[in-house]
Amino acid sequence: MGYIGQSPVVGAAQAAAPHSYRTGDGEEMTRMMRYKVIVLITCLSVLTGCWDRVEINDLALVMAGGLDLGENGQVEASLQIAIPQSSTTGQGGGKTKKAFMLVSETGKDGPDSLSKIQKRLSRKISFGHRGVLVIGEAYARHGLDQVLDQLTRSAENRYLVYVLTAHGTTAKQILKTSYLLESIPATALKKMQSNESSHSVKVDDFLGTLSSIGKSPVTGAIRLSSKDANEASFQINEAAVYREGKLVGFLTENEMKILQWERGKLKNERIQTQVERKEPGFKGTVSIVVLSAHTAIQTRMKDDLPEASITFKFKGRVVENDTRLDLSKGENIKRVESKLTEHMEKQIKNLFLHVQKQLKSDIFGLGEQIHIEHGADWKKIKNQWNDIYPQVPVNVKVEVVIERIGRTQAPAQLKN
């Protein structure tokens, strides 16, 4: 029998399920569900809110920065800041305005200069998008101690920023120069540094090498390509050499290429050499494109002093034959390889003469190699390495191998 007012079927079901929830249990469960929902809503409201967030419209996005030597040893900081797109288009079909602005201030150090710049801006300075740091030549020769302190201390500075050194000009002048192919010049600088045509180094590598005793840092060198303000642009086809935190000189474009080859960062570069004497209709030259380049450095100790040998191996493809030689013949290929070897040996020896005897900067890391191969001897000489390095005998060996001669064996202008 079921309860009064209840069907027998329901009563039987309740009797068969003695553990089912009663009315009081249902109310308790409802209260628990309400409590969980309230807690969940409270947590979500806290998690989705950022009390200290800064809107993008409140940020001044720095695309590139520059440091120059001011009066009385002060620091002049320059920031290339992107102008929001909505404000760059002229109204009424007018001329489009610049997509960037340059702000500069001079202070006793980098942070002081930046503080003065911030007071001139309506937005908060943000370095999250900065891709390039340009150091003026005068400041680089003066020394980078203040720069290094700022780069290592500030949490806002990214270690993936490219470092460039201005040649014959200031960082401020570089940053205010427009570039026709890009609306913001910093974009062009970053793209030029990311390809293999110029020497590039990022802040983390630059700081690591600068703090090393056995190797000196090298950055790309940027200079203006025209003195005309209306036609001014920039190019990065040289390299800047440092020693003990100061700029000591520059490498030419050809010297920079050798450094790139040594570091395995340059391919498809052309080498031309004189193989025969010039005659009517023929320049006597052969040109190859470098397919691969490998370098090996070895050191040895002799009478407690180091000696070094560096070997360059090039593999190339003939792209021009302006001689009477038929390169399908083995003896002619050997002759061209020999001439190319002589040419490259001379170039590399001149580079070592420049950096070792004149600049006295260990850009190839001979000290690091001695540390690896002769650890005990390195401990004895590392504190005097800057004095020892210019006197270290360096033997240069070059090997050039032509792997391909192209579809035409003989010069195209020769008649059969």
From TrEMBL:
Bilayer topology term: Lipid-anchor
Transmembrane segments: none
GO CC terms, sorted: membrane
Biological process terms in GO annotation: spore germination
Domain (Spore germination protein N-terminal): residue spans on this chain: 52-223
Keywords, in A-Z order: Germination, Lipoprotein, Membrane, Palmitate, Signal
Keyword Cell cycle appears in the UniProt entry: no
Gene3D superfamilies: Nutrient germinant receptor protein C, domain 1, Nutrient germinant receptor protein C, domain 3
Domain Spore germination GerAC-like C-terminal: 238-406
Subcellular location: Membrane
Top-level taxon of origin: Bacteria
Family: Belongs to the GerABKC lipoprotein family.
The protein's name in its UniProt record: Uncharacterized protein
Species assigned in the record: Paenibacillus rigui
